[in-house]
Amino acid sequence: MSQTVDRALSILPLLAEGPADLGRVADRLGVHKSTALRLLRTLHEHGLVHRQADQRYRLGARLFALAQEAAENLDVREIAHPHLVALNEKCGHTVHLAVHEENEVLYIDKVESRYPVRMYSRIGKPVAITVAAVAKLLLADLPEAERRTLAATLDYPRYTARSTPDATAFLAELAKVREQGWATDLGGHEESINCVAAPVRGADGRVVAAMSVSAPNVVVSAEELLTLLPLVRRTADAISREYSGSPPTKEA
């Protein structure tokens, strides 16, 4: 039975390449045409495959409806939270999760640090959009025209001497973040607070959220915090895989 299911599911990525006739499906699966036909008929009955007038098969409308329904019901915060907690337990620092909604970047989850010093960030509160590491990741993923339009409309408060000064510098920073795939805020919002962040991506590769680790200088230096970047990126990748439904990576 498991082999039958595996063969049936193997038909779907083939048809994602475009319509295919019975012979091509049988050849791809390495089975007799009668076996391929039984599999196609079963998928057709469930609306996952559709037979065209030319007798070729393509993906069915039911498959797209299921994908849309699943995407609408995904809760990135619910998926990410156990990973954020695990990261906090490993490093001890404050961990955030943020999303981009209606021209604001908002924190939607937070796991507090284990030491007495607390950050003023709050769930549901907008971040400092021109300096926050999570904001840079989310905005860097926008198309270039949208990035330029947004940059031109923003104010650029000088929170500290390290704050982003203007739209030109902001666009340059977003381009850098887009290329390297991670971001930092090293004293740009609060002189004594540093942050490293990594993106959470959906099945289409777009950034759906950003997560970060933040810590004050009195606990850990910026250089020491940056050594956690590989761990932060692995955590974000794990969230991305679970969110997008990708299979887990095999341990070496």
TrEMBL record:
- Keyword Transcription regulation annotated: yes
User: Ranges for the IclR-ED domain?
Assistant: 62-245
Task: Write down the InterPro entries for this protein, in alphabetical order.
Answer: GAF-like_dom_sf, HTH_MetabolicPath_Reg, Tscrpt_reg_IclR_C, Tscrpt_reg_IclR_N, WH-like_DNA-bd_sf, WH_DNA-bd_sf
Residues annotated as coiled-coil are none
Query: Where's the HTH iclR-type domain?
Result: 2-61
**Can the keyword Glycoprotein be found in this entry's annotation?**
no
A Pfam family matched in the record: IclR_C
Keywords of the record, alphabetical order, are: DNA-binding, Transcription, Transcription regulation
Q: Gene3D superfamilies per the record?
A: 3.30.450.40, Winged helix-like DNA-binding domain superfamily/Winged helix DNA-binding domain (1.10.10.10)
Q: What is the top-level taxon of the source organism?
A: Bacteria
Q: Which PANTHER family match?
A: HELIX-TURN-HELIX TRANSCRIPTIONAL REGULATOR, ICLR FAMILY (PTHR30136), HTH-TYPE TRANSCRIPTIONAL REPRESSOR ALLR (PTHR30136:SF24)
This chain belongs to which protein, by name?
A: IclR family transcriptional regulator
Q: Organism, per UniProt?
A: Streptomyces siderophoricus
